[in-house]
Design brief:
- Helix 7 links the parallel strand 4 and strand 5.
- The model has no long low-confidence stretch (mean pLDDT 95).
- Helix 3 runs parallel beside helix 14, helix 5 crosses helix 6 and helix 8 packs parallel to helix 10.
- The protein has an eight-stranded parallel barrel with strand order 1-2-3-4-5-6-7-8, surrounded by nine helices.
- The chain contains 14 helices and eight strands.
- The chain is of the alpha/beta class and 318 residues long.
- It is globular.
- It has a single domain, classed as Alpha-Beta Barrel (TIM Barrel), CATH 3.20.20.70.
C-alpha cells in the first residue's frame, strides 16, 4: 500500500479543498472548506453555474442589496457543500463568516441559517459541520449549537487553552493548524528548520490529542494546515487529518512504510484537567503570543477572502 492508503488505516482523511474533482480523485471521508478555499474554487468552470444559481436564489428572496449579497454568499457556501457531499461519504464543513468571530449571538444565527439551507435541500444535520473560529465567543456559540444538534468544527485553533475550552464546551471537532504554528516559530524563533518530530505544530496537536484521550473527551482532533508530508506522518493515528490534494498526491506516490505514531488507547499525557472561565481563557490566550497572533491573522485573512468572494458576486449581479 502507498502511504495515503496506510494513513487511512489509522486516521480518517479529510480533503482540504473545494475542488470537487480533486476530492473525487483521492476519496477522503469528509471535506472541509473555508472562504479562501471557496475563493479558489470559484475560479473553476464547475462553479460558474453554482454561483449563478446562488445569485438567482438570493434575488428571489428580496431585501436590500446587502441582504441579497449575504443570502447569495450563504447559498453559495451551502451549494458548494452539497456538491461536495455527492462525492464524500461523510461530512462537509461550512464556515460562518469570519467577521462574526467576536459575536456569539450573530454566529449562532448564521449557523442556524446555514443548517436551514442545507435542510431545505434535504441534507441532514449529521452530514454537516459548522466551522467557527476558536475565539471565546465562537466557543460559546458552539456550546449552544451542539445542544441543538448542530455539530461544530472549531477552526483557527493554535493554543492549548483554546483546545481545552473547546472540549469543555462539547465541540464535536477541532482543527488545530499545524503549519501555521510552524510558520510562527520559524519567523520568531532562532531555528529555520525543524525535523518533523520536533515540529512545533506537530507537538501541539500531539499534546492536545493525548490530553483529550487521557481525560476521555469525545471531541475529535483534526490536524490541519500542513506544510509537508513529514508533519502528516508524525500525526498518523490522530482522529482525523485534513490534507490538501497536493500533499495527498505526494503520500499516494510514496510506497514507503508509514508507522502509527498516535494511539487513542495509549494516551501519552499526565496533564491536569484544565477548565477555564472567560477571564482565565483570555489571560491564558494573551500569554500565548503565537496563538494570539495567528488567530487574529487567520480571522483577518478569512475575512479578506470573504470580501473578495462578495466582490466577485457583486460583479456577477451587475
Amino acid at each position: 500500500m502507498n502511504k495515503l492508503e496506510q494513513l487511512k488505516q489509522y486516521t480518517d482523511v479529510v480533503a482540504d479543498t473545494g475542488d470537487i474533482e480533486a476530492i473525487g480523485q483521492f476519496k477522503p471521508l469528509d471535506a472541509t472548506t473555508n472562504p479562501s478555499l471557496l475563493l479558489k474554487a470559484a475560479a473553476l468552470p464547475r462553479y460558474e453555474s453554482i454561483i449563478n444559481n446562488s445569485l438567482d436564489w438570493a434575488s428571489r428572496q428580496g431585501g436590500s442589496d446587502r441582504e441579497q449579497l449575504n443570502n447569495g454568499m450563504d447559498k453559495l457556501s451551502v451549494s458548494a457543500g452539497i456538491e461536495i457531499l455527492k462525492v464524500v461519504p461523510g461530512r462537509v464543513s461550512t464556515e460562518v463568516d469570519a467577521r462574526l468571530s467576536f459575536d456569539t449571538r450573530l454566529t449562532i444565527e448564521r449557523a442556524r441559517k446555514l443548517i436551514r439551507l442545507y435542510n431545505d435541500e434535504g441534507i441532514d444535520n449529521s452530514r454537516i459541520l459548522i466551522k467557527i473560529a476558536s475565539t471565546w465567543e465562537g466557543i460559546q456559540a458552539a456550546k449552544v449549537l451542539e445542544k441543538e444538534d448542530v455539530q461544530c468544527n472549531l477552526t483557527l485553533l493554535f493554543g492549548f487553552s483554546q483546545a481545552a475550552a473547546c472540549a469543555d464546551a462539547g465541540a464535536f471537532l477541532i482543527s488545530p493548524f499545524v503549519g501555521r504554528i510552524l510558520d510562527w516559530h520559524k519567523a520568531n524563533g532562532d531555528k529555520d528548520n525543524y525535523s518533523a518530530s520536533e515540529d512545533p505544530g506537530v507537538l501541539s496537536v500531539a499534546r492536545i490529542f493525548n490530553y483529550y484521550k487521557q481525560h476521555d473527551y469525545k471531541t475529535i482532533v483534526m490536524g490541519a494546515s500542513f506544510r509537508n508530508t513529514g508533519e502528516i506522518e508524525q500525526l498518523a493515528g490522530c482522529d482525523r487529518l485534513t490534507i490538501s490534494p497536493q500533499l495527498m498526491a505526494e503520500l499516494e506516490n510514496d510506497q514507503g512504510k508509514l508507522e502509527r505514531v498516535l494511539d487513542a488507547s495509549k494516551p501519552n499525557s499526565n496533564e491536569a484537567l484544565l477548565v477555564e472561565n472567560e477571564q482565565q481563557f483570555r489571560w491564558s490566550s494573551n500569554e500565548d503570543a503565537m496563538a494570539t497572533e495567528k488567530l487574529a491573522e487567520g480571522i483577518r485573512n478569512f475575512a479578506a477572502d470573504q470580501v473578495k468572494l462578495e466582490t466577485l458576486l457583486k460583479q456577477k449581479q451587475l
